[in-house]
Predict the 3D structure of the following.
Amino acid sequence: MLQYAFMQRALMAALLVGLTAPVVGVYLVQRRLALIGDGLGHVALTGVALGVLTGGAPVLVALACSIAGAVAIEVIRARGKASADVALAVMFYGGIAGGVVLIGLSPQGTPANLSAYLFGAITTTTSGDLVVFGLLSAVVLAVAVGLAPRLFAVSNDEEFARASGMNVLGLNVLLAVLTAATVVISMRIVGLLLISALMIVPNAVAQVTATSFRSSMGVAVGVGVGASVAGTGLSYYADTPSGGTIVLLAIAVFLVASVGSWLRSRWHGRRHHDMREHPHEHGPGCGHEAIPHGDHLDYLHDGHRHAAHGAHYDEH
Amino acid sequence: MTSTHRPSAPPDGGPVLELRHTSIGYGARAVVNDVSLRIDRGEVVALVGPNGSGKTTIVRGVLGLAPVVGGEVRLFDVPAGRFHERWRIGYVPQRHTVVGAVPSTVQEVVASGRLPRRRWWKMATAADRAVVHRAIDVVGLTDQTRAAVSTLSGGQQRRVLIARALAADPEVLVMDEPTAGVDGSSAEALTRTLARLVADGRTLLIVTHDVAPLAPILTRVVAVADGSVVGDEPAHLALSPASALSHGIYGHPGHDPHHQAPDDPAGRPATPGWLGDPGLHGAPAAG
């Protein structure tokens, strides 16, 4: 397959997106904003459609549109109103509906065309696209890695960052712009409906395998590049949409990693509850009876005993 | 009154945190009404009160995390809005765990507390790393430096949050319920850690519902109920069994006939007569 120029371009684009998406995604996962990338993809579709309709450069119009969308999303979120959730949803629906209608209106707007934008295709990357993707990737990676300590701090604990005088809004807007750029880098190979999967799923693998933020990023990039390049190659042989193939591969890696991690914790023996999935925090006066047990307190919970152990409760 | 205050600028005993007729709240409804409170350098103050009394809101207002809707907050004798050295006030939030959605090590979390002291474009220096390691050492987690925070106990994770605050080398430490959900021996270890910080000359403001574990280091106890300061005593009085504070306020603030909002124009908290000598508050730190 490497003798075809379109495949060379597709694999290059896959490499770029596989590198970039997980590096930006790690901050989205840390902030528990996994779905924002998805919404940005929806907004970018309107940008792509505008580019197609006006005969201009869909990539650059999509970039402008999704950066504008990203900044709008951050501003809506920062205002913190209860209506923000619905406002964002309306924006995302508007993005995808506008994109579908505008592409339908354009002379070159075929269903195949639309499907390539939504789910990725290996034949669509032009050399001009590659130049844009390369530049965007370089900038996104330089910022996301160069400012990693600050992005980590804000994503890890926004309140602490604000209380210690860091520019939280600025960093959040920056992260949103990085996300928007990543959406655009991915629009050929992965597609706008699936891009957030490539930002999130490799980080889900890291979540169950890594112990530090640094190693999480490494694992995520490895999975991202692997799934992205292998998926693109696979879609050539299997004649499948590249985006879907890449994402299914990444999810397969995640399932294997999860089962492995589950088996490992079974091997360690003790049953425990993850506190992240356990909404109640045991403490004095929490309503559960506390029982001294060696060097700690167990809390009676639905007839069994919970003991805090790191991020989870052990059953005692 | 510029932002160029050096750490040594306010003389010993000068105000570090001050509320002047401050109301704090969200939207139209203030949770904290017309509170005046001044905390001087070297004090170790417990802010006590029942759930929903507004003690956490007071702290959040001081830190700029909750909107101040009336009156004034002053930090190091500078209006809060013009104070740009927020790192001088370390914040230890109330949180059971420090586990983010992405794994991170003790070292990574604590180092994030050093960032306010670094320029955007500067890499961490050897000095930065030394401060981070010292902060981890102070809270006794040196052995766990490279451990994932998710593998630590609740008490250890609290200490990670304290170390993160210490990494900026703050002069004041504001802590929200540092002992909640921590068993007795961990609470004692925490108090020993705090005693070292006090000995270093740091000022502590500790929101708590349980002063007992902190008794050895406290110099002053301020009681809050229904969004107002209702008691303010030196610790040795507040912690004595005879104290009205330990009897009247913790349990039944609503029954106190002397319940009143402080309104001393000098900004020092008015102390209800039954709490004893108002001149005694602001006692210097034991360290």
